Amino acid sequence: MRRAAATVAALLAASACAKIIGADFDNVSPRPTQDSGTGDAEVCVSAEPIGPPEVADDPGTTTFTGVTRTVDFGEGTTGGVPDYLSVGFDLDRTCTGHPDPAVCQPAPWTEGDATDGIHGEDNGVGRMLSRQKDVFGTDVVSGPIVTKAIGAGTFAPVGLFEVSDWNGFSEDLKVTVKWVVALATTKAPGGKPPKLDGTDAWPVASELSVTGSGSDTAPATYTSTSAYVNESKLVAHFDHVLYAFANVYMDVYDVEMQADVVFDAASGTRKLENGLMSGWATADSLILLIPQMTSDLLGVPLCTNSSTYAATKQFICRGADYASKSYVAGEPCDGTTFGMRFDTTPVTIGAVVPLPEVTAKCPAEYDPAKDTCTKAEQL
After folding, report:
1. CA–centroid distance for 160 within its chain
2. Is the distance from CB of 229 to CB of 170 less than 8 angstroms?
3. Contact 206, 217 (CB under 8 A)
4. Contacts of range 28-37, beta carbons closer than 8 Å, 24 or more positions apart
5. How far is 240 from 221, CA to CA, in rounded Å?
6. For the chain: N or C, fewer Cβ within 10 A?
């Protein structure tokens, strides 16, 4: 009886917190965690996508396509509460600090914190970006900056989504969702800013340029074979995708995605709204991107011999909050999670072109590619 009472109390507390911070926790799953030691089981109400519908498979033929038009990485605050605590899913099914102990911690030298949101929301990148003004005096990358640049055609959208095999109703047990690697519209040959009115034919990267094999005329795609629609919400999982972050492409794993499927009157097709997405990247891979990202954003590559490299490295590495399958117990976290809100705008797939080549930005002896988040000193 005491356990049942504790469970109810925890759920009521979670509901109250949801109202306070303005988050939507309709689709979270109560999950017992470690015992508090008092005889009452604490409850972690894990933030997860809505489950599949309890219906028979009903194959359909409806298809629609869209690109991420607006993004929010959770770097802001709402009512004084950091948004990164509610923007994301519980990727590791652990509510770190609420009440679960951390599976891993960032390296001590980073002074990082792996505490999740109250429902286990994982968003190390959002936590990292929230500190930009403290570290650099300005926002270098943020949701509003990326959203504006996508609209101007100077940044690639995070991804282009092609939904097919949908029956067109609010419940469908099996649909197909493809993540297509998209380019900034002005980066493609003859490119120009998009209209964002449903008529854009969006340039995408070729399979050959992304994977090193396959066709140079077929788009580079990643397919979710377990996607579904429930309560008009599209849910998809991707084991791995190439994720465009401020025009820098990086490998992201275990991507969970949920969004409302709504009708777009202007284009006569569907689009995704109120989207939420989570995934993770290796912490060290984010260091490797420093020269390319600073070169693209600031015009100057940041190398290990720069006077500001150490502060930038700490800024990035303190976001590490995830233990991958290859994680070694007792070591610092080897992964960094991200969470993102998003909406899409309808498009069609346009020209298939090579992904822009990444050239070395730093001399070999000063290249962060050899560096690691596990140690403060540069390797």
Report:
1. 14
2. yes
3. yes
4. 28/119, 31/93, 33/95, 33/99, 33/100, 34/99, 34/100, 34/101, 36/99
5. 10
6. N
Residue 368 contacts residue 288 (beta carbons within 8 Å): yes
CB atoms within 10 A of CB 263: 10
Encoded tokens for 201: 């034919």
Please give the share of the chain, as a percent, with pLDDT higher than 90.
72
Helix ranges (H only) for 36-174 are 124-129, 132-136, 143-152
What is the residue whose two structure tokens read 């969470």?
339
312 vs 317: CA distance, rounded Å: 9
Residue 32's pLDDT band, with cuts at 50, 70 and 90, is: low
Give the tens place of pLDDT for each residue, 211-261. Answer: 999 999 999 999 998 999 999 999 999 999 999 998 899 999 999 999 999
Q: What angle do CA 277, 278, 282 make, to 5 degrees?
A: 145
Instruction: Look at residue 20 and tell me whether its pLDDT is greater than 50.
Output: no
Q: Judge whether 243 and 229 are in contact, CB under 8 Å.
A: no
pLDDT at 154 over 50: yes
Residue 37 has pLDDT above 50, yes or no: no
CB 246 within 8 A of CB 155: yes
Listed in sequence order, the residues at least 6 apart from 163 whose beta carbon sits closer than 8 Å to its beta carbon are: 62, 63, 64, 65, 175, 176, 177, 227, 234, 261, 270
Nearest to 266 by CA among 345, 201, 203, 342: 345
**Is the model's pLDDT at 345 over the cut of 50?**
yes
Distance of alpha carbon 226 from alpha carbon 57, whole angstroms: 12
Residues 143/158, Cβ–Cβ less than 8 Å? no
CA distances from 100 to 90, 128, 291 (A): 12, 22, 37
b or e along 176-194 (b: 16 or more beta carbons within 10 Å of the residue's beta carbon)?
bbbbbbbbbbbbbeebeeb
User: 62 - beta bridge partners?
Assistant: 166
The angle, 0 to 180 degrees and rounded to 10, between the axes of the packed helices 309-317 and 290-298 is 110
Q: Which SS3 state, helix, strand or coil, does residue 117 take?
A: coil
Rg of the chain's alpha carbons, rounded to an integer?
A: 21
